[in-house]
Amino acid sequence: MLISKDEQILNLLGLAMRAGKLVLGSDSTLTAIRGNKVQMAFFPSDGGQSQSKKFADKSSFYNVTLIQDYTKRQLTDAIGVNRSVFAIADRGFSRKIKQLISEKERN
Fold first, then answer.
1. Are 62 and 5 in contact (CB under 8 A)?
2. CA–CA separation, 86 vs 41, rounded Å?
3. DSSP sequence for 3-40
4. In this structure, are residues 39 and 91 in contact, taking their beta carbons and an 8 Å threshold?
5. Per residue in 32-77, pLDDT tens?
6. Which has the closest alpha carbon to 26: 4, 47, 9, 7?
7. Phi/psi of residue 3, each to 5°?
8. Which strand (E) or helix (H) includes residue 104?
9. Within 10 A of 12 (CB to CB), how many other CB atoms are there?
10. DSSP-assigned letters across all residues of 44-97
């Protein structure tokens, strides 16, 4: 059985969490973005509008990929912690997720 690109991405987030490669929470994530410590951040599609804008602006200014394709529920379930805002502090995980997203957009 083939699993969807979304499921693969969410599974990778779980792996990154277990590997200790995630920066969790709004403040820590913003600090990591400002410090150029992360390449990719996640913000829930059903998150607040002002927070969403803040993350979009910071991400674009610091050239960080911001993913807003998943709900709070999906993100929380994927990493097993009640956090829906986080960033990936690992180039390997970021690269693989970017690859899956571009494959998903092509199909």
1. no
2. 6
3. PPHHHHHHHHHHHHHHTT-EEESHHHHHHHHHTT--SE
4. yes
5. 999 999 999 999 999 999 999 999 999 999 999 999 999 999 999 9
6. 47
7. -95, 150
8. helix 91-106
9. 18
10. -TTS-HHHHHHHHHHHHHTT-EEE--S-HHHHHHHHTSS---EEE--HHHHHHH
- Is 107's pLDDT higher than 90? no
- How much is the pLDDT for 10? 97
Whole-structure pTM value: 0.94
Which residue in this structure is represented by tokens 């969807």?
4
d(CA 107, CA 97): 16
In Å, the largest CA–CA distance within the chain is 41
C-alpha 23, offset from chain centre? 10
